[in-house]
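Try it yourself: sequence plus zinc ion, in.
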Amino acid sequence: MIAQPLILRVAIATPLRRLFDYLPADTTEVKNLQPGIRVVVPFGRRKDIVGVVVSIGNKSEHPQHKLKKINNIIDDEPIFNNRHLDLLIWASNYYHYPIGEVIFTGLPSSLRKNNTINEFNEQVWYLTEKGIATDPNLIKKAPKQAQILNYLQQRKTPVSESEIKTIYDRSKQSLLALKSKDLIQSGTENITDSVIKINKSLFKLNKDQEYASNQILNRLESDSVFLLDGLTGSGKTEVYMTLMESVIKAGKQCLILLPEIGLTPQQIQRFRDRFEVNIAIQHSGLSDAERTQYWLNARSGKAKIVIGTRSAIWTPLANPGLYIIDEEHDLSYKQQDGFRYSAKDMLITRATRDRVPAILGSATPSLETLYNVEKNRYKHLILSTRAANAKPPKFRLLDIRGKKMHGPLSQMLVDEITMHLANKNQVLLFLNRRGYAVHLYCHCCGWKAECGRCELPYTYHKAMNRLVCHHCDVIKPYVKNCPDCSEPLLLMGHGTERIEEVLATLFPKATISRIDRDTTRKKNAMRDYLEEIQSGKTDIMIGTQMLAKGHHFPNVTLTGIVDADRGLFSTDFRASERLAQLFMQVSGRTGRGVKEGTVIVQTYNPEYPLFQQLIKDGYNNFCNSLLQERNHSSLPPYSYMVFLRAEANNVNDVKQFINNAAMQLKQITNNALLLFGPIPALIEKRSGRYRYQLIIQSSNRKALHTHLDSWLEKLDHIRGSKKVRWSLDVDPQDMA
Ligand code: ADP
Ligand code: ZN
Ligand code: ZN
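Structure, out:
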């Protein structure tokens, strides 16, 4: 009998939706071949490209003499264990995204190249003879060095650099200084485990926190999903940390996702203060080397805690014990281009597959999550009291129709601000719009300053003295006069810069901070602002979305929502949900200390049911009626959606592509799915390209997904497809 040759099925980072078959090299030892190892292969015109072996078999669709051989194997052991590799394959199938791209998304960029894991063996530090004999008190002048020296003396063994950095933030300089004093030395031996020290919480959990913790503690061995529902400041993070303590003591790992805006150094420090264990951080601001090191620590089990933003969901864990996602409703968990995954849905999928609990935390849970609670799929745990005995804020709708205004601020709001400042309290004004003015137009001839590529108005940024398109980021010089008739242009619509200007005139003695993307570009700018606010130096802060989430401002007693009407009349079916969430988040900044807070909402639509109901019935009841509406109109979560998004320079090309695509799909599915389109995206034109969508909908998830792959194969070949850029968005989160 002739032995069958082994065929390696290899994933490569290309847009092609398939695996590629290779033969082992002549020198390959068969025992080294396993799914999950990386190999170097010739591909197309390229001689050596990195691939990941997904499976090994002995059949190929191609005749054997046509198959190429791999060049060599990179890894001695799989870079992903089977559990993780299966998860990536699952994600590729579910999101109908090319398997190679999905697998390579899950790798830090250093490992997408031909580097072995051993190249990342971490530096370890240990004491020299002199270091053992030196009293740390003798280097008091450099407190961090003294602490590190003391720590190494306590530990007695070599300690990995990541462990030291975990405990002593930004400690590289101190390490080098100790080395130059000949007190410590570095090496690269492999340390297998790090010491675990868990500090006690500073306070006793309150009743709600204790009940919630116990409920989850009892189910740590199950794959239950929990909604931890509590106002901002109700102590959710304390509950997470209590559970993490148990999980880590049981030798397992925790993965925590935070929204992009929530992953601040302070937040990380809070975990570091409590857990003196190896912590892996994953976010896009890290250097390649750092990111790879952390990733490998998570993979090997050395890191007990992994904290990160959206992409951290792809970090492999050796021994998972708990998955947590904070502010689960946050939009930053959905990738909005390329591989459009939802980190939240992946987290729940991961937890279920690993048979460990998942916790979704939020003060304003998404409708999807509330729906799953109603269906008894998730357990609802409520933290009703604010931890520090703070009272919930009082709401007031301010009808500003026909009222005296100072730019964007009504006289009534100004009076309130005066009062709160007189009582030595802080005020927060919220407006989700940067810049000075949103429209520039000519009163004489109607000329408008518009971005030609997006057909939307430019925003005037006074500090820069420039016009900026907020959709494609193009920047143009500011023009004072109409280019057609030379009349001075009018400035309409207010942004944060304008509020700042108005306040500076009305309250010349107050310290005012404007916090938006323009003022926080510089590194540490945000941190400095927050410190100023916390120290009480700031009297009034003006903020966009950036300031709406997650911060602690105990002395803010008045929050003003300057323009509540934006988003009321959007065609996106999630607009009401998002507006309610933002509304609640902003008000959550108020009265977090012992002082009671007031939220004032300026609106031209005081009778609008959304405001009335939200204020009267609260968020959860409001969401129940939204859910009923969704049910009646068969919208998610009562049905499942996929978008085909397409864009092209010519509007007819894109419409025609969508029409053809829809026709194809109708044929394949025998009209089993609901199709709507071509529908223009909320931003119909961006950077000169017209953007349209085909909405594909079904109440049966399986029916929806079954035919998509065969349809996608056809899309590349339909007429006109070369002129459009298209992508699939499974479970889309917005219509922009
Ligand atoms: P959340 O994560 O829900 O926003 P946190 O856990 O950050 O809430 O708690 C808000 C504040 O209250 C924090 O400063 C925290 O230290 C404090 N806190 C939390 N739980 C308690 C408690 N049981 N007793 C006293 N203070 C608490
Ligand atoms: Zn004009
Ligand atoms: Zn533009």
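One thing you can check immediately is this: The first helix runs from residue 82 to 95.
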